[in-house]
Structure formats: C-alpha cells, structure tokens
Design brief:
heterotrimer; A alpha+beta; B mainly beta; C alpha+beta; A: alpha+beta; 6-stranded antiparallel β-sheet; 79% helix; B: mainly beta; 11 strands; globular
C-alpha cells in the first residue's frame, strides 16, 4: 500500500516537474530562438513539440491524475465518515460500553460491522466468563477462609489439649514420685517383717518338735493303758470263775445244811461245818466283790486314763494342726513379704521408667506445641491469603463491571436501564420511591438507590427494605449536596455510567461500591444523577 | 422279835422276781444250779416244762409266776429247788432267781395272808418274805 | 425235707417237729397231781430217755390239742 501511495503522491509531483520542465524548455527555446535567430521552422517545430508534449501530458498524465485525485477525495470523504463512525465505535469500546459500540458499529461498512459485532460478542462472552470465574474465585476464597478459621480454632483446641496433657503429665510425675516413696517405705517394712517372719518360723518349728515329743509320750501311755486293760480283763475272768465257785459252794453249803437239819442231832456237827463252808463261800463272794470293786475302780481309772490320753491325743492333734497352720501362715507371710519386696523393687523401677517416659512425653509435647504455633501462624498467613483472594475476586468483578454488558449481573446495565426509565419520566417523579423500591427488591445486593439533581442536591433516597437501618439513622438527608462525592464527579466528567472503587458503606458498615448513571430526558438534557450502592459481599455471592 | 430257838423252824429263803419267798427246809430236797427245761405244749404258763433230775423226770414251775411277782433284778446265779409236794412226796422243781440263806422263822411272826400257796408274810432282815405252803399246789 | 413228719397211729395223726427215736422199753412214772394240775391232758405218765424228760402219751387217747394240729 505504501508503494502505491508513493506512486500516487509521486504522480502530481512528477506532473508538476514535467509540466514545469516542459514550460521551462519552451521558454528556454524561445529565448534561444530569439537570441540566436534560429530558423523559424526550428522554433515552430519546437513550439509545436512543446504544445504537443503539453497536450500529451494533460491527456495522459494530468487528466487521469485529476480523475484519481477526485476519486481519492471521494474515498477520503467516505473514509472520513467511516472513520468517524469507527472513531465513535472505538470511543464506546474504550469506555467499555459494548452495547453502545454495537449500536455505533451499524454505521461501519458491512463487512467491518459484521467482524466488529462478532468481536464484541466474543469479548462480551469472555468478560462474562471472567465474571463467573471471579465469582468462583470469591467462593473459593471464602471456602479457604472458613477452612482456615476452622483450622485455626482446631489448632487453638489442640493447643489447649497440649496444655491439658502437659498438666496431666506433671500430675502423673508427682504421683509416680509418691508411689516410689511409698514403695521404698514398703521395702523397709518388708525387710523388718522378713526378720520377724524368720524368727516366727523358727519358734513354730521348735513348738512342732516339742508337740511331736508329747505325741510319742501319749502314744506310749496309751499302749501301757491297753496292756493294763488286757490284764484287767483277764482278772475279771478269774473273778468270774471264783464267783461261780463261790456260788456253787454256797449252794452246796445250803444243801448240806438242809441235810443236816433233816438228820437231826447227828447232823448238828455237820450243819456247823456246812455253816462254816457257807460263810467261807460268803467271804469268797465278799472278797470277790471288793476285788471286783477295786478292779472296777482300776478299770475306771484306766478307762479314764485311756479317755484322757485319747483327749490329749486329740488336743495334741489340734495343737499340731494349729502349729502347722501357724507354720503355713508364717511361710505365706514370708512369701508375701518376699513378694512385697520384689514388688517394691519393681515399682521403683517402673516409676523410674515412667519418669523417663513422661519426660519424653513432655518434650514431645513441647515440640508439638511449637508445631501448632507454626501452624497457627501459617494459618494467619493463609487467612490473609484468603482475604487477598476475596479482594482479588472483587477487583476482577469490578473490572469486568467496567464493561457494560446487557446481562443482569451488569450493575451498569441495571443503572443505565433505571436511568433511562427515569429520563423517560422526567417531570413525573412522584412515584420515585416506589420505582426505587421495586428495583431494590429485584436486586437484593443493592443497598440503596438515590437521585440528585444536576447540581448534586439529593432529591430522593431509598434504602433496600431488607436492610436493617443503622442506629444512627440515615447517613444522608434529602436536600443534602453530594457534589463532592466521587461518583457524582465521575459521572459529570465522563457523562457515562461509572463505578466507584470499593469503600465501607455508612449504611451497613460492609464493603460496597456505587454505580452512578446520568439521567437524560428525551431532549438529551441532563436532569439528574442516579446512584445505586452495591453491597460487595452479597453481590459477589449471586451466581452469574 | 427274836423267837426262842426251839419254837422256830428253818426256812430256805429264795428270791423270785421282786419277791422273797420262804420254804420250809423239810420240803426242800436239793438246791441245784438252774436245770435245763424242755417246755411242754399246752402247758399252763407257770409250768416251764420238764427237766431231768437224777434220771427222773421233773416238772419245773416258775416260782415268780406262781407268786405273781413282777420283774426283778437279773439273776446272777439262778437255781432250781427240788421240792416234795403233798403227802405223795411228788417231786417238783421250782425255778427261782437265787437261793439266799437259811433262816429261822417263828410261826407267830408270820402275818397270814392266805393267798394261794402263800401262807403269810414275815419281816426278815433281808426284807419282807412270803411264807409258802406248797401242799396247796397239789390241791385241785 | 422241709415237710414236718406226721405219725399215724391207727386213725390218729400226730404232727411232729422231729422224730427222735423209737424205744421198746420205757420206765414210765405216773404223773403227779401237781403235774396234772398244770398239764391237764390224758397221758400215761412221765419218763426219761437219754437224759431228756418226756411226757408219754397213749395212742388210744391222744390229747385234743394234738388233733387240732399246732398247740
């Protein structure tokens, strides 16, 4: 294209040079002819040639050039209007207003307009994608924050647990020390008990020996009593025999006496003898009786002795039993004492081990608490990162909002639509509050809607009915001049819908931004500035 | 009361059950250690049975039953007293628990009771004895 | 054996526990009055055989107590 340009721009210059040259040539020729008095035919032919050249030049060069120039000027004019249109489109694009740009693009050449519309659509789609992505980012940021705060609370719980465990360990260590002391005492007592146990065992052994001796003696006595018993039984048999003989003798004597009495005088001497015999028998019987009595006594005493020895034997057996039981108890005791000593030693060892173990635990806990601390600090950073993410998401959202798209998410669109409505009804602003309220209800993320006159005086102010008003009352009053506010100034400056940066709302105390739009009437006069306060938090939550 | 020797008679003093009985010696033939007795079927309770004495059959009566005595101490040396009963001199054995002694009894000392074979009672140093007259056994 | 012996004398049957023996000669004493009083049954008398005292019965006049069977 540049080469073509060069050619075309070169042409008039060339034309000028050529025609200048030709003219110069003619003049020079005339001068020469006049000077040197050349033949006329030279001057005439030179003149004809010069005219011929001129004519040729006009026909071949100047005319086409002029045609070209005319075409060029026509194109330029065309281009100029096209450029204007293009300029308008670009201006709208610069302001991010894709909707207006699309409208302006209709004035562009059709192919260009087609391309442009396609491009605008693509850009719009991209912006929407960015918007929804930024919502995702914000959501992710919130998740991260909630996780971080959970972790933070968890780590503070952990920290508390560590403190508890440490306290418990210290308690444990104290208890272990106590136990160790007790065990040491026990060991001493056990040693003492062992000594007395040994003495006790020796005593019991002696007693047992003595008792066994007694047992032997008693057995000997019992044997002797047995022998005596046998002897006395023999004696009883003899006595029985004697008794029988005495009885027989008695009867014999009686018979003899009876015979004697029958014999009369002759029998008298015999009866005396018989009486003697009878008396003998009687005496035998008596002595047998006394022997029997003595024997009875003797037997009784033997029996008593036997009984006594039996009793003694039983007694001895009891004593033996008790002594053996005592020996067993002592043995048990000694065993227990031994076990106690052993146990005391074990306990001492165990408490030592425990102390080592609990020391280790305390060390480990210290390490753990350090880790927890680090984690808490990390979480703080985490939390900060999450906050950063949120901010980032909001910034992205706001950036994308600087594009005016005709989507419901676009606050600019909302503001613009509302401004158009107000503009159409300029002069009939009685129902402003109702209109505002409806818009606020439709878009719950809007905190408030307000309108100023072109000087900046607040004409109307409606708060979203779902919001709780702050204790101090409304932050602005009707009639108050808000010309200093940045949104007002931006609108007046740019004459288009603008967004403010994020600030803290006086109404809710939360982060918000203002979208402000100029209100034109049907004649194109500025009749007011519309403002909408957007709550950043609730706005980012709304799905695209 | 001690009677003069000439007025008394000699009696054999026997123990039977819880009683003491006195028999005139002139009816006593012999005192023996208790004889073995074979009981007879159909006999009266007082007839213990038959025994053999010097080759002769001897019916043996239980003195305690004859007297209607109650049980006494167990006899250490029971006897059979061979007695002559009645005019015919029938030999009968009396089973008694013991032959105690020969005693002299004055007839006046006997308090008559007149029951069966018992003539009367007499107080003796050994106790109250029933004086018997066996002749009444033979009476129908 | 188990069955107790019986002795038949003519039409009379004597139950017995045991038959001790049979003798031809026996010195029989007349029963005395005392005996008869205490054993009031017809009999020939008393005798001694082999150191045992017996009551001798007449076959012709057995005491009823035998005829009945067990006394």
């Amino acid at each position: 294209m540049k080469q073509q340009e060069k050619r075309w721009t070169a042409v008039p210059i060339l034309g000028a040079i050529i025609s200048g040259g030709i003219g110069l040539l003619g003049f020079v020729g005339l001068v020469i002819a006049g000077t040197y008095g050349l033949p006329r035919w030279v001057m005439d032919s030179y003149f004809v040639l010069t005219i011929g050249l001129l004519g040729l030049y006009v026909a071949l060069v100047l005319q086409p050039t002029r045609k070209l120039a005319k075409q060029f000027l026509r194109l330029k004019a065309q281009f100029g209007s096209g450029e204007e249109a293009f300029g308008r489109v670009l201006q709208q694009l610069k302001a991010g207003d894709l909707v207006a740009a699309r409208a302006a693009a209709h004035h562009l050449p059709p192919r260009v307009a087609e391309q442009f519309v396609a491009t605008a659509k693509a850009v719009g789609a991209l912006v929407q994608q960015i918007q929804s992505s930024s919502v995702d980012v914000a959501a992710a940021g919130q998740q991260v924050q909630s996780i971080a705060s959970e972790l933070a609370s968890g780590s503070s719980e952990q920290a508390a647990a560590v403190v508890e465990i440490t306290a418990t360990m210290e308690e444990l260590a104290r208890t272990a020390a106590q136990i160790a002391t007790n065990a040491a005492n026990q060991a001493e007592l056990a040693a003492q008990a062992e000594a007395s146990g040994a003495a006790g065992a020796a005593a019991v052994d002696e007693a047992l020996q003595g008792v066994e001796e007694v047992q032997k003696r008693i057995a000997a006595i019992a044997a002797r009593a047995d022998t005596l018993g046998t002897r006395s039984r023999e004696i009883y048999r003899v006595l029985d025999l004697i008794t029988e003989i005495a009885q027989e003798t008695h009867i014999l004597a009686l018979n003899a006496a009876i015979e004697a009495s029958a014999a009369g005088e002759h029998g008298r001497r015999f009866s005396v003898v018989a009486d003697e015999v009878r008396r003998l028998a009687e005496r035998s019987r008596e002595s047998v009786d006394s022997v029997r009595t003595l024997l009875e006594e003797f037997s009784a005493s033997i029996r008593a002795t036997v009984v006594a020895t039996e009793e003694s034997t039983k007694e001895v057996a009891n004593v033996l039993e008790r002594a053996r039981a005592a020996a067993a108890s002592i043995a048990e005791l000694r065993g227990a004492v031994e076990a106690t000593s052993h146990a005391a030693r074990e306990i001492s060892l165990a408490t030592q081990q425990q102390r080592t173990a609990s020391d280790q635990v305390v060390l480990t806990l210290k390490e753990v608490s350090q880790v927890i601390q680090k984690m808490a600090e990390g979480l703080k950073g985490f939390s900060a990162t999450a906050e950063h993410l949120n901010q980032l998401a909001l910034s992205i959202q706001l950036l994308t909002q600087s594009f005016h798209l005709d989507t419901p998410r676009s606050v600019k669109h909302i503001a613009q639509t509302l401004a158009d409505t107000l503009g159409a009804e300029a002069g009939y602003w009685e129902a402003l509050d109702a209109t505002f309220t409806q818009t606020l209800k439709e878009h719950r993320f809007l905190e408030s809607a307000f309108l100023t006159d072109p000087e900046g005086n607040l004409a109307a102010f409606t708060v979203n009915p779902e919001l709780r008003l702050p204790e101090g009352g409304l932050p602005v009053a009707i009639g108050q001049n808000l010309a200093e506010r940045p949104w007002f100034q931006a609108v007046m400056r740019d004459q288009r819908t603008t967004l403010t940066p994020v600030y803290t709302s006086l109404l809710t105390g939360q982060r918000c931004f203002t979208v402000a739009a100029p209100v034109w009437d049907s004649q194109g006069r500025l009749v007011g500035v519309l403002g909408l306060d957007v709550n950043a938090t609730s706005w980012t939550k709304i799905a695209a | 009361m001690v009677a003069p020797l000439e007025a008394t008679r000699r009696y054999l003093l026997l123990a039977a059950g819880d009683r003491l009985a006195a028999l005139e010696v002139r009816v006593v033939r012999r005192i023996l250690r208790a004889l073995p007795v074979t009981p007879l079927p159909g006999a009266q309770p007082a007839l213990l049975g038959l025994a053999e004495y010097s080759g002769e059959p001897l019916p043996v009566l239980d003195l305690a039953q004859l007297l209607g005595a109650g049980p006494g101490p167990s006899p250490a040396f029971p006897v059979t007293v061979v007695v002559r009963v009645g005019a015919g001199g029938e030999l009968v054995g009396l089973a008694a628990d013991a032959a105690l002694d020969l005693v002299s009894i004055a007839p006046g000392a006997v308090t008559p009771t007149g029951e069966g074979i018992v003539v009367g009672e007499v107080a003796l140093p050994q106790g109250t004895a029933e004086v018997l007259d066996l002749a009444r056994l033979a009476a129908p | 054996m188990g069955k107790k012996p019986t002795i038949r004398v003519g039409e009379v049957v004597f139950p017995a526990d045991e038959v001790v023996g049979v003798v031809h000669d026996l010195a029989v004493r007349e029963p005395g009055k005392v005996f008869a009083r205490f054993w009031p049954y017809p009999c020939l008398g008393l005798a001694v055989l082999a150191s045992e005292a017996l009551v001798v019965l007449a076959a012709s006049a057995p005491p009823e107590l035998f005829a009945k069977g067990e006394p």
